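Q: What residues go here?
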């Protein structure tokens, strides 16, 4: 994900919110029919919940709660990758855009994985 200046956004709250917005805009482009409709719903739920769970993690009261919420972010970003793959199959004309969003979901997943690992190491 890039902002107007073509620089990476390092503020994870903003980055995850922007990703959720990008998922919503992408979902609007998908033609709705019996195959895509349930996938669109799942994609929006998973893609937008990453930011919500990150906000909760950012306000966690304990390290355990923090790690748990980031674990949910990891799961939701991985699930988002899955639904993007399914959309690419169901709507091949959107494959390139789905791939870009998949890459961002993957980067977010790697970031959350790294944060949780570091948190657990620092706990010891």
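A:
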């Amino acid at each position: 994900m890039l902002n107007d200046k073509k620089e990476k956004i390092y503020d994870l709250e903003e980055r995850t919110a922007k990703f959720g917005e990008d998922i919503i805009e992408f979902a609007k482009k998908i033609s709705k029919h019996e195959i895509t409709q349930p996938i669109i719903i799942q994609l929006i739920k998973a893609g937008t919940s990453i930011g919500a769970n990150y906000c909760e993690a950012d306000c966690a009261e304990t390290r355990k709660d923090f790690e748990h919420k980031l674990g949910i972010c990891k799961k939701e970003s991985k699930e988002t990758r899955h639904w993007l793959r399914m959309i690419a199959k169901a709507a091949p004309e959107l494959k390139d855009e789905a791939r870009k969003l998949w890459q961002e979901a993957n980067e977010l997943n790697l970031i959350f994985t790294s944060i949780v690992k570091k948190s657990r190491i620092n706990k010891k």
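A: Context that may help when evaluating the design: The chain has one domain: 12-123. Residues 1-6 have pLDDT under 50 and may be disordered.
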